[in-house]
Amino acid sequence: MAIAGILLGGGLSTRFGAPKLEARLFGRRLMDIACGHFLDAGLSPVVFAGRGIPEDPRVIRAGAGRTMIETLRLGLQKIPDDHAFAFAPADMPALFPALIRSLAEEIAVSPSLPGATARQAPVFLIPCHGGRRGHPAFARDRAPFFELGDEGGAREIWRARADEIVHREVVTADILFDIDTPDDLAAAGDRDARLARLRAKGSL
Question: Which residues are bridge partners to 138 per DSSP?
Fold first, then answer.
Protein backbone atom coordinates (compact mmCIF):
# COMPACT_ATOMS: atom_id res chain seq x y z
CA MET A 1 0.00 0.00 0.00
CA ALA A 2 1.28 3.46 -0.91
CA ILE A 3 1.57 5.83 2.04
CA ALA A 4 1.27 9.59 1.82
CA GLY A 5 2.51 12.09 4.38
CA ILE A 6 0.69 15.19 5.65
CA LEU A 7 2.48 17.84 7.70
CA LEU A 8 0.32 20.26 9.63
CA GLY A 9 1.37 23.88 9.92
CA GLY A 10 -1.77 25.86 10.50
CA GLY A 11 -1.11 27.20 14.00
CA LEU A 12 -0.54 30.86 14.86
CA SER A 13 2.69 30.31 16.87
CA THR A 14 1.44 32.45 19.74
CA ARG A 15 3.77 30.89 22.32
CA PHE A 16 6.75 31.14 19.99
CA GLY A 17 6.20 34.84 19.32
CA ALA A 18 6.84 34.62 15.56
CA PRO A 19 5.96 32.23 12.71
CA LYS A 20 7.84 29.26 14.14
CA LEU A 21 7.91 27.13 11.00
CA GLU A 22 10.05 29.85 9.43
CA ALA A 23 12.55 29.52 12.30
CA ARG A 24 15.83 27.82 11.42
CA LEU A 25 17.62 24.85 12.91
CA PHE A 26 21.08 24.16 11.51
CA GLY A 27 20.31 26.65 8.75
CA ARG A 28 17.05 25.11 7.58
CA ARG A 29 13.48 26.17 8.29
CA LEU A 30 11.47 23.86 10.51
CA MET A 31 8.89 23.27 7.77
CA ASP A 32 11.61 22.18 5.36
CA ILE A 33 13.21 19.84 7.90
CA ALA A 34 9.85 18.16 8.52
CA CYS A 35 9.07 17.86 4.80
CA GLY A 36 12.54 16.49 4.13
CA HIS A 37 12.17 13.79 6.78
CA PHE A 38 8.85 12.64 5.31
CA LEU A 39 10.29 12.60 1.79
CA ASP A 40 13.45 10.77 2.86
CA ALA A 41 11.30 8.18 4.63
CA GLY A 42 9.69 7.35 1.26
CA LEU A 43 6.24 8.79 1.89
CA SER A 44 4.57 9.94 -1.32
CA PRO A 45 3.04 12.31 -1.96
CA VAL A 46 4.03 14.62 0.88
CA VAL A 47 1.59 17.45 1.57
CA PHE A 48 2.24 20.56 3.64
CA ALA A 49 -1.08 21.83 4.98
CA GLY A 50 -0.60 25.23 6.52
CA ARG A 51 0.94 28.65 6.19
CA GLY A 52 4.15 29.03 4.21
CA ILE A 53 5.81 27.60 1.12
CA PRO A 54 8.11 24.58 1.47
CA GLU A 55 11.36 24.80 -0.47
CA ASP A 56 11.16 21.31 -2.03
CA PRO A 57 9.06 21.39 -5.23
CA ARG A 58 7.96 17.79 -4.63
CA VAL A 59 5.87 18.91 -1.64
CA ILE A 60 2.20 19.60 -2.43
CA ARG A 61 0.68 22.61 -0.73
CA ALA A 62 -2.70 22.73 0.98
CA GLY A 63 -4.35 25.45 3.00
CA ALA A 64 -4.72 25.95 6.72
CA GLY A 65 -8.03 25.49 8.49
CA ARG A 66 -9.28 27.08 11.70
CA THR A 67 -8.38 23.95 13.67
CA MET A 68 -5.86 21.15 13.30
CA ILE A 69 -8.56 18.69 12.17
CA GLU A 70 -9.72 21.12 9.49
CA THR A 71 -6.13 21.54 8.33
CA LEU A 72 -5.71 17.77 8.19
CA ARG A 73 -8.87 17.47 6.07
CA LEU A 74 -7.45 19.97 3.60
CA GLY A 75 -4.32 17.85 3.38
CA LEU A 76 -6.31 14.65 2.91
CA GLN A 77 -8.05 16.17 -0.09
CA LYS A 78 -4.66 16.37 -1.82
CA ILE A 79 -3.75 12.68 -1.62
CA PRO A 80 -5.08 9.74 -3.69
CA ASP A 81 -8.05 7.88 -2.25
CA ASP A 82 -6.24 4.53 -2.24
CA HIS A 83 -3.30 5.73 -0.12
CA ALA A 84 -2.77 5.22 3.57
CA PHE A 85 -1.31 8.26 5.25
CA ALA A 86 0.85 9.52 8.07
CA PHE A 87 0.37 12.89 9.70
CA ALA A 88 2.26 15.02 12.18
CA PRO A 89 2.66 18.66 13.15
CA ALA A 90 5.40 20.32 11.12
CA ASP A 91 7.08 21.65 14.29
CA MET A 92 8.59 18.26 15.22
CA PRO A 93 12.10 18.33 13.68
CA ALA A 94 13.31 15.15 15.40
CA LEU A 95 10.93 12.77 13.62
CA PHE A 96 13.75 11.20 11.67
CA PRO A 97 13.28 9.12 8.50
CA ALA A 98 14.35 5.78 10.04
CA LEU A 99 11.58 5.98 12.63
CA ILE A 100 8.99 7.00 10.04
CA ARG A 101 10.04 4.15 7.73
CA SER A 102 9.78 1.55 10.50
CA LEU A 103 6.22 2.62 11.31
CA ALA A 104 5.29 2.86 7.63
CA GLU A 105 6.40 -0.74 7.09
CA GLU A 106 4.00 -1.89 9.78
CA ILE A 107 0.97 0.00 8.47
CA ALA A 108 1.69 -1.31 4.96
CA VAL A 109 1.68 -5.01 5.90
CA SER A 110 -0.78 -6.90 3.74
CA PRO A 111 -2.07 -10.40 4.56
CA SER A 112 -1.83 -11.23 0.86
CA LEU A 113 1.96 -10.93 0.92
CA PRO A 114 4.10 -14.07 1.38
CA GLY A 115 4.92 -14.57 5.04
CA ALA A 116 2.32 -12.04 6.20
CA THR A 117 -0.68 -14.37 6.47
CA ALA A 118 -0.71 -14.27 10.28
CA ARG A 119 -0.53 -10.52 10.50
CA GLN A 120 -3.19 -8.03 9.49
CA ALA A 121 -2.15 -4.44 8.95
CA PRO A 122 -3.63 -2.10 11.56
CA VAL A 123 -6.25 0.44 10.55
CA PHE A 124 -4.58 3.02 12.79
CA LEU A 125 -1.03 2.98 14.15
CA ILE A 126 0.18 5.40 16.81
CA PRO A 127 3.72 5.45 18.23
CA CYS A 128 4.06 5.72 22.01
CA HIS A 129 6.89 6.34 24.41
CA GLY A 130 6.42 5.55 28.08
CA GLY A 131 2.74 5.05 27.36
CA ARG A 132 2.33 8.55 25.89
CA ARG A 133 1.02 8.89 22.36
CA GLY A 134 3.16 10.78 19.86
CA HIS A 135 3.62 11.35 16.13
CA PRO A 136 3.53 10.53 13.31
CA ALA A 137 0.16 8.78 13.45
CA PHE A 138 -0.75 6.46 10.56
CA ALA A 139 -4.14 5.51 9.15
CA ARG A 140 -5.52 3.30 6.40
CA ASP A 141 -9.06 4.72 6.65
CA ARG A 142 -9.68 8.43 6.10
CA ALA A 143 -13.46 8.41 6.57
CA PRO A 144 -13.38 8.99 10.35
CA PHE A 145 -11.31 12.14 9.87
CA PHE A 146 -14.19 13.66 7.90
CA GLU A 147 -17.00 12.24 10.04
CA LEU A 148 -15.56 12.92 13.51
CA GLY A 149 -13.15 15.23 15.23
CA ASP A 150 -14.99 18.56 15.14
CA GLU A 151 -15.09 18.72 18.93
CA GLY A 152 -11.96 16.88 20.01
CA GLY A 153 -9.75 16.60 16.95
CA ALA A 154 -7.89 13.33 16.42
CA ARG A 155 -8.47 12.33 20.06
CA GLU A 156 -12.17 12.09 19.30
CA ILE A 157 -11.41 9.70 16.47
CA TRP A 158 -9.08 7.60 18.62
CA ARG A 159 -11.80 7.27 21.26
CA ALA A 160 -14.44 6.24 18.73
CA ARG A 161 -12.22 3.72 16.94
CA ALA A 162 -10.14 2.53 19.89
CA ASP A 163 -10.49 -1.17 19.04
CA GLU A 164 -8.82 -0.61 15.65
CA ILE A 165 -5.71 1.19 16.96
CA VAL A 166 -2.33 -0.42 17.39
CA HIS A 167 -0.12 1.47 19.83
CA ARG A 168 3.53 0.86 19.05
CA GLU A 169 5.99 1.56 21.87
CA VAL A 170 9.20 3.08 20.49
CA VAL A 171 12.57 3.73 22.13
CA THR A 172 12.86 7.39 21.23
CA ALA A 173 11.07 10.18 23.09
CA ASP A 174 11.41 12.36 19.99
CA ILE A 175 7.88 11.35 18.99
CA LEU A 176 6.78 13.71 21.79
CA PHE A 177 9.09 16.64 21.10
CA ASP A 178 7.65 19.71 19.39
CA ILE A 179 8.61 23.36 19.17
CA ASP A 180 6.40 25.63 21.25
CA THR A 181 8.89 28.25 22.47
CA PRO A 182 12.35 29.62 21.59
CA ASP A 183 13.75 27.45 24.41
CA ASP A 184 12.44 24.37 22.61
CA LEU A 185 14.13 25.48 19.41
CA ALA A 186 17.41 26.01 21.25
CA ALA A 187 17.24 22.42 22.50
CA ALA A 188 16.06 20.81 19.27
CA GLY A 189 19.46 19.95 17.83
CA ASP A 190 20.65 17.78 20.73
CA ARG A 191 19.05 14.56 21.98
CA ASP A 192 19.85 15.12 25.65
CA ALA A 193 18.62 18.71 25.48
CA ARG A 194 15.37 17.52 23.88
CA LEU A 195 14.86 15.05 26.72
CA ALA A 196 15.52 17.78 29.27
CA ARG A 197 12.93 20.03 27.64
CA LEU A 198 10.35 17.23 27.57
CA ARG A 199 10.90 16.67 31.29
CA ALA A 200 10.71 20.39 32.03
CA LYS A 201 7.39 20.62 30.16
CA GLY A 202 5.98 17.55 31.91
CA SER A 203 5.82 15.52 28.72
CA LEU A 204 7.91 12.67 30.15
Answer: 86, 125
How many residues does this entry show for the chain? Answer: 204
Helices 30-40 & 97-107 angle (0-180, nearest 10):
50
Helices (runs of H) and strands (runs of E) counted in the chain: 7, 10
Distance (Å, whole) CA 182 – CA 184? 5
Q: Please, what sign has the CA dihedral across residues 166, 170, 173, 179?
A: negative
Domains and CATH numbers, the chain: 3-176 (3.90.550.10)
pLDDT level of residue 111 (50, 70, 90 thresholds): very low
Using one digit for the tens of pLDDT, what is the confidence trace for 114-149?
A: 454 445 779 999 999 999 999 999 999 999 999 999
Question: How many angstroms separate the Cα of 117 from the Cα of each of 109, 112, 121?
Answer: 10, 7, 10
- Burial label for 29, CB within 10 Å (0-12, 13-18, 19+), is buried
Q: DSSP assignment, residue 163?
A: G
- E strand or H helix that includes residue 89: strand 84-89
- Cα–Cα distance, 201 to 38 (Å, whole number): 26
The CA-to-CA distance between both ends of the chain, in Å, stands at 34
pTM of the model: 0.92
d(CA 97, CA 137): 14
